Each structure stands twice: as structure tokens, then as C-alpha cells.
Amino acid sequence: MSVITLDEVKQHLNIPSSYTGDDTLLGQERDAAEAYAVTFLELDDDEDIAAEMLAKPQIKQALLMLIATLYNSRESEVYSGTQETKAFERLLYQFKPWGV
């Protein structure tokens, strides 16, 4: 159900489209990011609605940001002085269903 192409991922990461060495990894990270967003937004029940939501510009940008984080930080621990960005969740919160 990918709403983001591999070429879009590569463009976001400044990877030449001709370089294919990380295509499998990038595809896995794209799929993981999309699955995370589907779960976060509680869209598991309807694949059509999920695809429509993930195609929204704000959500696509959030997905690209998460993919970049996954690609650039391939370990579970970070030893440098970097901080986690909250932009991914901020872009998604506006679409999260809030119930009582």
C-alpha cells in the first residue's frame, strides 16, 4: 500500500536514483514508517481510508522524516549529541482520533 515511491525516498535523502545498493533497506524503512503511522492514527480497519490518509501532504512529509531518521540512525542507541525530533508526531497529531 505504499504511498511513497522509492524515488521520493531517495530524493528526500539526497541519494542518487541510480544508486540501488540500499533499495531493500529503504523499502523496509518506508514500510515500517507507513505501518507505524497506520497504527498511530488507528487506521488498521480500512485499507482504503488508510491509503487516503497517508497520501495527505502532512502525513507524507512525516513519513519521509521518519524514514530519514530510520535510515540515518540504524542503531537503537545514539552516542552522539543528537536529539530526537518531534516533528513526525506533530504532523500526525492533527489526524489522530481522540475519543473519550
Describe this structure in words.
This protein is mainly α and 100 residues long. The protein has helices at residues 6-12, 23-40, 47-54, 57-72, 87-93.
Assembly context of the chains: single chain
Give me the count of strands: 0
Topology as a string of helices (H) and strands (E): HHHHH
* Cα-to-Cα separation, first versus last residue: 30 Å
Radius of gyration: 14 Å
Choose one word for the global shape: globular
The helix content, as a percent range, equals: 55-70%
Proportion of strand residues: under 5%
How many domains comprise the coordinates?
1
Q: What's the average pLDDT?
A: 87
| Helix/strand class | mainly alpha
Tally of helical segments: 5
Poorly predicted runs: none
The biggest sheet, with number of strands, parallel, antiparallel or mixed sense and barrel status, is: none
